[in-house]
Amino acid sequence: MDKNGKVSTNLINGIATITFSHPKGNSLSSRMVREVTSAIDKFAEDKHAHVIVLRSDGDKAFCAGASFDELLEIKDLKSGKEFFMGFARLINAMRKCPKFIIARVQAKAVGGGVGIAAAADYTLASNEASVRLSELMLGIGPFVVGPAVERKIGKTAFITMSIDAEWHDAFWAKQNGLFTKVFANNHDLDEAVSTLVKKIAACNLESISQMKKVFWEGTENWDELLEQRAEISGKLVLSEFTKNYIKAFKEK
Fold it and tell me: pLDDT-derived band of residue 246, with 50, 70 and 90 as boundaries?
């Protein structure tokens, strides 16, 4: 696995796959977030891509969220806002993409990883896929991913995840609508993803595009909303509380 993280793509028989990997729990650097966003935008325009699978490598974690190393390097509001705008642009790219995006969640997801699972149109997971919004403990909050998570699981469950900041298992995530189905192991998960995307790849692209618009009705203000949320996070991440928390976490 590339020590700086890697994003790779392929397109076979109408099925586009975007895979991200990072040795630190598949955490996402700003560069990786840009590359995932760019890949979604590319496949959105590619007439040969009928469906997109978004996944990560390995079996230890689906996504540990934002890169702590980069968070520590943020020194001013402008760079702080820009860092979180990366996740805002990613969620908006997923929202606007005229193709269905299927998330394959094989293990734990934190913060931005939960946001990706929520912004996908259909999310399949293994029973190892616990989820956590730990941002409050970090001194910020799940502001940017919040609209996507709340849209998927409802306000009450979102408040629960935000306040207690604890792990919730895959069955809780399924019960609350974050995951569509949960499988006993990664082999069964991969079989289910493969079966589903083959069906979708055979569908009419125009029908998919129109359905996607229906699914995301009511989110037309998200370009502005997520930018406002990125600014909140960008300001809070500058606090001594956040800097000290990240340093202590990294020293564990």
Answer: confident
